[in-house]
Amino acid sequence: MNANGPWIEHLPGNGLWSNAILVTKGMAPYGAVALGEIDQVCENLRARQGEPQAWWEEWSAMGRRLHARADELEAAGHHMSAGNYYLRAGMYYFTAERFIYPGPDKREMGRIAIDCQIKGILRRYPNCERVEVPYEDKSLPALFMKSPHAGAKAPTIVVFNGMDNCKEMSVLFAGLEFATRGWHTLAIDGPGQGESLRLRELYARHDFEVAGSAAYDYVAQRPQVDAARTFVMGYSFGGYYAARCAAYEKRYRGGIAMSALHWDLHGWQRDIKRRQDADPKGTPQSAFHFRWIMGCIDDGEAALEKARQFSLAQAAGQITCPFLIVHAAEDTVVPVANAPRLFDAIASKDKHLKILTAADGGHYHAQADNRQVGIDYIGDWVETRL
């Protein structure tokens, strides 16, 4: 039985906007958005669904309003209150940027969003710091959140995002909970993610263990990290990335896929393209986003060809560390059938699959409807393996 209601599908018949609204609403428990502000934007959008530009106009208008207030509070010396406004402004700017076609306008909106989010996080959470992770001849931007409850050396979770998320979201919905449990978190924008994509033009790569190794090397050299108890986690598209890291970077203590991806990215994206051609509003993904992260914005076929390399068919058999898959029973983004298929192929004797249902409290893709349910399950699983 489908348990989705109007809270999930905010604009009935418009899966593209409704999914993006849900992701934004899902950040409310962490103070990164306010439901009343979201409702104001959505009521304006409800009457403008035939205007593609309405999306970024309405969300960025809310962002500018809060941004101005944040600057006023900052100038008056009210840094904590300013942080709240910066954080919400940044999240709305990031939501606005989602459906802007790649180019100068998207880059600038991304820059403003990241700047506001970082200002908000650093003011609200002084135990968090912005860091750079050495990566090949470049570096990857990240946030390191230290737990105030940790011992001299503590477990650490490296968190990679999904296809259209960012480290600023990860450090809030995952890092805050992990900090409460006494663990540090490295929330990182890998190639094709967040700031690395938007401001550094680093595109997705199938051999993501290169980024995973860079992240491990970074945390392992930090004096407060217990390198032998470092886990790698990814959510949504990051489920693929975490699995690749667990398969080929053997120093991780374990891995977590908060959504099982990808057995066959090429086939999955070709099917999404078919559905988009039939109904542009019928899928949760824009027509250009996949091409953009692949570095093939002007060539859909080249993006699909590159996607052939993104498969766990060979990698799953190389996963020998403890591994957890958490998937949603009514995932309309990634078929739930992916989860048992990946689970069966993983070689580790210590593997676990959890399908979360409406009865559990969160049943949508990557628990966007209730992140806490997924993170609590992940936290409990990690605790038993420390």
Q: Please, could you describe this protein's structure?
A:
The chain is built from 14 helices and 8 strands. With 386 residues, it is α/β, with parallel strands linked by helices. It has 2 domains: 116 residues, acylaminoacyl peptidase (de novo design (two linked rop proteins)); 213 residues, 3-Layer(aba) Sandwich (Rossmann fold), CATH 3.40.50.1820. An 8-stranded mixed β-sheet has the order 1-2-4-3-5-6-7-8, with helices on both faces. β7, α13 and β8 form a beta-alpha-beta unit. α3 packs antiparallel against α4 and α10 runs antiparallel to α12. It is globular. The model has no long low-confidence stretch (mean pLDDT 94).
Task: Give a brief description.
With 386 residues, the protein is an alpha/beta fold. Helices cover 45% and strands 15% of the residues.
